[in-house]
Design brief:
- This is F-box domain-containing protein.
- The chain is an alpha/beta fold and 426 residues long.
- The chain has helices at residues 13-21, 29-40, 44-54, 66-82, 108-118, 142-154, 172-175, 220-225, 244-256, 295-306, 332-337, 344-352, 375-381, 384-409, and strands spanning 57-58, 92-97, 126-132, 158-169, 182-190, 211-215, 236-240, 263-267, 285-291, 317-326, 358-370, 413-425.
- Among the domains are: 8-55; 65-192 and 204-261, Leucine-rich repeat, LRR (right-handed beta-alpha superhelix).
- The protein has a 12-stranded parallel β-sheet with strand order 1-2-3-4-5-6-7-8-9-10-11-12.
Length: 426
């Protein structure tokens, strides 16, 4: 190395940390962890930051045989025994549960790992993710799960809880998390009746999450709202995959979070249940998708938007995602007709934008369906690529025309379009 180039050791620690941070990519967690481990061996200046990222997430159970999982736990236990400081880097615990690995909560090494982590001074938050795989999972002994794992190691610290495909979960896992900021429940049910030997619920530890996401949870929401979770500080609410009777429970959350909720996402196809957005006057953004463009769905959507009171209007953006499969190339015009500026939906949006600027984003996912036996006909008429080009050209012309007409009808309604047109063969 020439003398006019400063040696690597002269770089500031802050710059070195930024170099290591640049390797972080949440989408490729496993791949990047190996890179951080390699970086930790390069030089002492790399070690602290690399270990911080490498040990951020602890995943003792994976899609492997139990012997491999046990070795994984034993290895981590050995690392923490040799260097307890590494425990301060652990901020997330991912558990992939099935009928063969409940031994984890009785494993002495795993309990020692959790004890080391929980006693680390630096622990001010912890994220927990539990997935039932390959099918919905239920703990065989909720009391053991409560007393040996949840109470001593999880609820005092947890700030994020993510549960997928778990049945009959003890409610204490949800009710005793005073620092919880983010809650996600996907196909999760809780104990409907508390057994006599269950941990007593201390309502002073009631969580007050700011972000809540749930999907297809049956009566779970109704149970939580009755005293186990306080949604009074909720700012983000995302609802997906619910039946119309479950959407009734959303109104309970809207009642509780009326003064705090700012962002609402509805990922449901059936809006038949009457939601009242007038309950949340501080709502700033609303997104709804996927929406079918049949007559009933359009009426339900318009009815929902009409519940937004003009005099208390604070919504700045509305995102509407429409998904449709067409069986005829010539039915695209009929599909688009329902979204034209002269149609009922745009009339509702123009009414909402009377007082302030409103940005509405239309996301159109359109698939043209052809049967396999029609492929020859398609090839005779045009190639699939040419058909897509034609449909996209038609979309561009329609968007330009619709924007021009909307600008004439309203100066405060700003429409944005994002669309994708594909051909699918059955």
């Amino acid at each position: 190395m020439s003398s006019d180039i400063a040696p690597f050791s002269k770089l500031s620690q802050e710059l070195i940390d930024e170099i290591i941070d640049a390797l972080l990519d949440p989408q490729e967690a496993e791949h990047k962890i190996s890179q951080f481990c390699d970086c930790a061996l390069v030089c002492r200046a790399f070690r602290h930051r690399s270990q911080n990222h490498a040990f951020y997430s602890m995943r003792p159970l994976q899609f492997r045989a139990n012997a491999n999982c046990r070795k994984r736990v034993d290895d981590l236990h050995g690392i923490l025994q040799e260097n307890p400081r590494i425990a301060s880097y652990i901020r997330r615990l991912d558990l992939i549960m099935n009928d063969t690995n409940e031994w984890l909560f009785d494993d002495s090494f795993f309990c020692e790992i959790m004890e080391i982590v929980s006693k680390t001074r630096a622990v001010v938050n912890l994220e927990l993710s539990v997935y039932g795989w390959p099918r919905p999972f239920q703990f065989t002994n909720n009391r053991t799960f409560e007393t040996r794992f949840v109470k001593p190691f999880i609820t005092p610290f947890i700030t994020s809880l993510d549960l997928h495909f778990i049945n009959n979960i003890p409610v204490s896992l949800l009710a005793h998390c005073p620092h919880l900021l983010e809650l996600k429940l996907v196909w999760v049910t809780v104990e409907a009746i508390r057994p006599f030997d269950a941990i007593d619920i201390d309502h002073s530890l009631c969580p007050r999450p700011r972000k809540f996401t749930f999907e297809s949870c049956g009566d779970t929401i109704r149970i939580l709202v009755t005293g186990y979770v306080d949604f009074g500080n909720l700012q983000h609410l995302s609802v997906s995959g619910c039946r119309s009777d479950e959407l009734d429970d959303v109104n309970l959350i809207l009642d509780t979070s009326s003064s705090s909720l700012q962002h609402l996402h509805l990922g449901v196809e059936d809006l038949e249940a009457r939601l009242d957005l007038g309950k949340v006057p501080n709502l700033a953004s609303l997104s709804i998708f996927p929406i079918r463009l049949d007559e009933d769905s359009l009426v339900e959507l318009c009815n929902l938007l009409r519940t937004i009171p003009n005099e208390k209007f604070k919504i700045k953006t509305i995102a509407l995602g429409f998904k449709e499969q067409l069986d005829d190339v010539y039915s695209l015009a009929e599909f688009l007709e329902k979204l034209e500026a002269s149609g009922p939906l745009c009339a509702v949006l123009i009414k909402l934008a009377e007082r302030e600027l409103l940005v509405v984003k239309f996301m159109l996912d359109i698939s043209l369906i052809y049967d396999n036996d029609m492929e020859g006909i398609l090839e005779q008429r045009n190639t699939g690529m040419q058909v897509c080009e034609r449909l996209n050209t038609e979309m561009q012309m329609w968007v330009a025309k619709n924007l021009e007409l909307t600008n004439l009808l309203s100066s405060t309604l700003c429409l944005e379009y994002d669309y994708e047109v594909d051909i699918m063969y059955q």
